[in-house]
Amino acid sequence: MKNIAVIGAGTMGNGIAHTFAQSGFKVQLIDIHADSLKKGLETITKNLDRMLAKTHLTAAQKQDTLNNITTFTDMAEGVASADLVVEAATENCDLKLKIFKQLDDICAKNTILASNTSSISITQIAAATSRPKQVIGMHFMNPVPIMKLVEIIRGYNTSDEVTKTIMELSKTLGKDPVEVNDYPGFVANRILMPMLNESIETLYNGVAGVTEIDTVMKLGMAHPMGPLQLADFIGLDICLSILNVMYDGFKNPKYAPCPLLVNMVSAGKLGVKSGEGFYDYSESRKAEKVAKQFL
Ligand SMILES: NC(=O)c1ccc[n+]([C@@H]2O[C@H](COP(=O)([O-])OP(=O)(O)OC[C@H]3O[C@@H](n4cnc5c(N)ncnc54)[C@H](O)[C@@H]3O)[C@@H](O)[C@H]2O)c1
After folding, report:
1. Is 42 among the catalytic positions?
2. Does 9 sit in the ligand 1 pocket, CB within 6 Å?
3. Of 117, 150, 181, which closes a domain?
4. Annotated catalytic residue: which of 118, 119, 241, 274?
5. Ligand 1 centre distance from Cα of residue 124 (Å)
6. Which domain covers residue 13, as residue numbers?
7. Whole-prediction pTM value?
8. Total count of domains within the chain
9. DSSP 3-state assignment of 11?
10. Which of 25, 111, 162, 263 is the most exposed place for a label (fewest CB within 10 A)?
11. Long-range contact pairs involving 178-182 (C-beta distance under 8 Å, separation at least 24)
12. In the chain, pLDDT over 90 holds for what percent of residues?
């Protein structure tokens, strides 16, 4: 594996590109919006500068990492020489099925196609291609350069060989991959999202306020951040979409999203990215301060 194409230069895509490039891979970063590519590269540079300041890498390593990344707005050009494609575009099932069908048409026959989806079925995504054995989930955690876990999701048809290749590749990135099967929410979100939803329900029922709920979980359970702050950090729209996938997939009311979460998303209160969620991030410095805790 030498050439890694990453689709989507948003929160996750730029972190995935950064991580591969820092490990010496050639990365083709692709986004439909030139502006997202520009912002993605700025974020990567800022994060490398922060690592440089903390002496976690040298100036030469920073430059090598940036030199390893090339950007594209044309998907066919970007994936032309890819050994692996990691798709990190917007969490929307129809969009992902369309992208994978297109990738199947334009990528070399042996290219492995991975998705960073938080919740959409890898088996369903794989069925949009003629190579379901070579389709796999590579679920990185945010912020990607820092977080050790990669949840590796085997679709119904994913081959042993492809799973082994992706497990090994994740280790070369300095990550700790964990293999799981393809059921709604996989493992990480199946356990995390009901906890976040219950925290929102606790607020909705008036049991306690935002800071009180977060303080209980931080000080009482030794969580590094409270569940409501974490939901803001992930994005309330993403939390809602994952809960809906689990609710639909298991037909179990325990995954039904709290009405307060639904209302906040409808009102455009999406957390850090929109400037307001359970907390107020209206001053850009505040949002940056929250993000910096993790970098
Ligand atoms: N945000 C998180 O904490 C998190 C964590 C793990 C996994 N994920 C998953 O990662 C994926 C990306 O999430 P994100 O938070 O980075 O989203 P984001 O909105 O920050 O970025 C998505 C990017 O995809 C681009 N895009 C949309 N359609 C495209 C297309 N057809 N071709 C190329 N680029 C396209 C958009 O322009 C945007 O830049 C989703 O599947 C999400 O579920 C997110």
Report:
1. no
2. yes
3. 181
4. 118
5. 18
6. 3-181
7. 0.91
8. 2
9. helix
10. 263
11. 178/149, 178/150, 178/151, 178/152, 179/152, 179/154, 180/151, 180/152, 180/153, 180/154, 181/153, 181/154, 182/121, 182/122, 182/123, 182/137, 182/153, 182/154, 182/155, 182/156
12. 92
44 and 169 part of one domain:
yes
Phi and psi based region of residue 198 (left: phi greater than 0; alpha: psi -120 to 50; beta: remaining): alpha
Cα(193) to centroid(ligand 1), Å: 19
Mean pLDDT of the 276-294 span:
70
Backbone angles phi, psi at 280, to 5 degrees: -100, 120
The verdict on whether 118 is a catalytic residue reads yes
pLDDT digits (tens, 9 = 90+) for 81-105: 999 999 999 988 999 999 999 999 9
pLDDT at 295 over 50: no
Burial class from Cβ neighbours inside 10 Å (0-12, 13-18, 19+) for residue 168 reads exposed
What is the DSSP code string of 195-255? HHHHHHHHHHTTSS-HHHHHHHHHHHH--SS-HHHHHHHH-HHHHHHHHHHHHHHHT-GGG
202 and 240 assigned to the same domain:
yes
Q: What is the pLDDT of residues 199-220, one digit of tens each?
A: 999 999 999 999 999 999 999 9
Q: Active site includes 18?
A: no
CATH for 143: 3.40.50.720
* From 68, 151, 197, 276, active-site residue: 151
